[in-house]
Amino acid sequence: MLELSGVSKSFGGVQAVRDVSFVLRAGEVRGLIGPNGAGKSTLVNLISGLLTASSGTMTLDGASLTGQSAHQRARQGIARTFQNLRVFPSLSVEQNIDVARYAGGGAALPEAAIEEFGLRDKLTLAANALSYGDQRRLEIVRGLALRPKVLMLDEPAAGMNEEETDALGRALTWVQAEADCALFVIDHDLKFIMTLCERITVLDMGAIIAEGTPQEITKNPKVISAYLGEDASAVA
Questions:
Q1: Into which CATH architecture does domain 2-85+152-235 fall?
Q2: The whole model's pTM is what?
Q3: Band (107; pLDDT cuts 50, 70, 90)
Q4: Average pLDDT in the 220-231 region?
Q5: Mean pLDDT of 133-158
Q6: Are 22 and 185 contacting, i.e. CB atoms less than 8 angstroms apart?
Q7: pLDDT tens by residue, 11-60
Q8: Phi, psi of 207 (to 5 degrees)
Q9: How far apart are CA 149 and CA 76, in angstroms?
Q10: 3-state helix/strand/coil string of the chain
């Protein structure tokens, strides 16, 4: 459904993303991992339209994304969260969700999503009154309110304790089953990624060094050398 071919991005003399190609299929849950500075967030910014690729092509359902702004891509079906929280702090939880719903053409968000992410009794609260974990969950629900074809999550479990991370994993499994969209997930929590994702793409120095199932990735010598190291045995 989402296809990247030869996508690269340079900042001056630094090549942050190098010749990235892959296909994200409808309903797929794919992880994106790699060392700090590998280009993961840059890649998500390129797909969502916050950055413009230096070269390469991207299509969604066969339609080119070239020249499309971030809000146009959101309307076409690409939603995302951010590594650093981007809620509207003075708006209520419900208003945060409504902003995305209207931006997506007024599509109704399934009430079950609000329930699944634990926001039912918090709808009237200002977003900045929520706990950190609830703000993370609000970002995801706001993304779902766009009724996306692809939902990209940049470090959704960052700052969460083990119990919160487990609950998030269950909620995202629900999304996979009920929301009819593909998930593209960046996270440094290897247990979380390996449990949630069907396939994993590994970036290093801006380039893909491996793709495969979690089991294949944990045994890949390039991935162990570049990223997993001693953690490989813990998540295998």
A1: 3-Layer(aba) Sandwich (3.40)
A2: 0.90
A3: low
A4: 80
A5: 94
A6: no
A7: 988 999 999 999 999 999 999 999 999 999 999 999 999 999 999 999 99
A8: -120, 150
A9: 8
A10: CEEEEEEEEEECCEEEEEEEEEEECCCCEEEEECCCCCCHHHHHHHHHCCCCCCEEEEEECCEECCCCCHHHHHHHCEEECCCCCCCCCCCEHHHHHHHHHHHCCCCCCCHHHHHHCCCHHHCCCEHHHCCHHHHHHHHHHHHHCCCCCEEEEECCCCCCCHHHHHHHHHHHHHHHHHCCCEEEEECCCHHHHHHHCCEEEEEECCEEEEEECHHHHHHCHHHHHHHHHHHHHHHC
Report d(CA 70, CA 72) in Å as an integer: 5
Whether the per-residue pLDDT at 61 is higher than 70: the answer is yes
Sign of CA dihedral 138, 74, 1, 205: negative
